[in-house]
Amino acid sequence: NAGVTQTPKFQVLKTGQSMTLQCAQDMNHNSMYWYRQDPGMGLRLIYYSASEGTTDKGEVPNGYNVSRLNKREFSLRLESAAPSQTSVYFCASSETYTGTGNTIYFGEGSWLTVV
Amino acid sequence: AQSVAQPEDQVNVAEGNPLTVKCTYSVSGNPYLFWYVQYPNRGLQFLLKYITGDNLVKGSYGFEAEFNKSQTSFHLKKPSALVSDSALYFCAVRDIRQAGTALIFGKGTTLSVSS
């Protein structure tokens, strides 16, 4: 039961470097999300993809780009990493975006440190 | 705009005692409400949700939550706490009428159960 799988789990970047966080789900969900978690701030939505072929900005999109590669995969890219992007990143998915009470299922997280 | 508040950063309880983790919400219409738990260095795990129907919702690991519309609350409860319940708990809300919005998470409450 893989669910939502994201890689890498840990990464250290230098300021200005770029990297891509990969995410895949095997639940045949239509909607996928990227959240970041910071101490005392809960989870904040970065980007989401309501369905294959669409992506939209969430609450904190600046400095990030996303690609919905296919129904299973949704990647998050940091083009020029900044220390403020040091965080824990979670990929998640749900059956639909607008469906009644859809439960969102989370991956195990990616710990990113920008030095 | 929808929002959710968890007024306590930390809740301490002795093993075997009942526990309550508080959550209040604000939405313009009727809410969908969720509780998630996060163990150290892990992703968020779904505990339970309120969509409609009975105000008392039962979930995983013996947890339950009571929806109170007049007080706009959705407190998480368990009759007898276990040391293994120690974790970070998140309440989340979504406005039924705002189909184009994702879940909004509270900042989290750390539950510490002592033996």
The radius of gyration computed from the alpha-carbon positions of chain A, rounded to a whole number of angstroms, is: 13 Å
- % residues in beta strands of chain A: over 45%
Question: Low-confidence segments of chain B, ≥5 residues, pLDDT <50?
Answer: none
- Counting DSSP E segments of at least 2 residues, the number of strands of chain A comes to 11
Helix content of chain B: under 10%
Global geometry of chain B: globular
What is the mean pLDDT of chain A? 92
For the secondary structure, the number of strands of chain B is: 12
Largest sheet of chain B: 6 strands, mixed
What is the rounded Rg of chain B?
14 Å
What is the percentage of strand-forming residues of chain B? over 45%
Pair with the biggest interface: A-B, 24 and 23 residues
Instruction: Please trace the helix and strand order of chain A, writing H or E for each element.
Output: EEEEEEEEEEE
Query: What is the H/E order of chain B?
Result: EEEEEEEEEEEE
Class inferred from helices and paired strands of chain B: mainly beta
Tell me the span between the first and last alpha carbons of chain B: 41 Å
Average of pLDDT of chain B: 91
The major sheet of chain A is characterized as:
7 strands, mixed
Overview of the molecule:
- The complex is a heterodimer of chains A (115) and B (115).
- In chain A, strands 2, 4, 5, 6, 9, 10 and 11 form a 7-stranded mixed beta sheet that branches. In chain A, strands 1-3-8-7 form a 4-stranded antiparallel beta sheet, with no helix packed on it.
- Chain A has 115 residues and is mainly β.
- Helix content of chain A is 0%, strand content 50%.
- Chain A has strands spanning 4-7, 10-13, 19-25, 31-38, 42-49, 56-57, 64-68, 74-78, 87-94, 105-106, 110-114.
- In chain B, 0% of the residues lie in helices and 52% in strands.
- By secondary structure, chain B is mainly β.
- Chain B is built from no helices and 12 strands.
- The radius of gyration of chain B is 14 Å and the shape is globular.
- In chain B, the strands form 3 sheets. In chain B, strands 2, 5, 6, 10, 11 and 12 form a 6-stranded mixed beta sheet that branches. In chain B, strands 3-9-8-7 form a 4-stranded antiparallel beta sheet, with no helix packed on it. In chain B, strands 1-4 form a two-stranded antiparallel sheet.
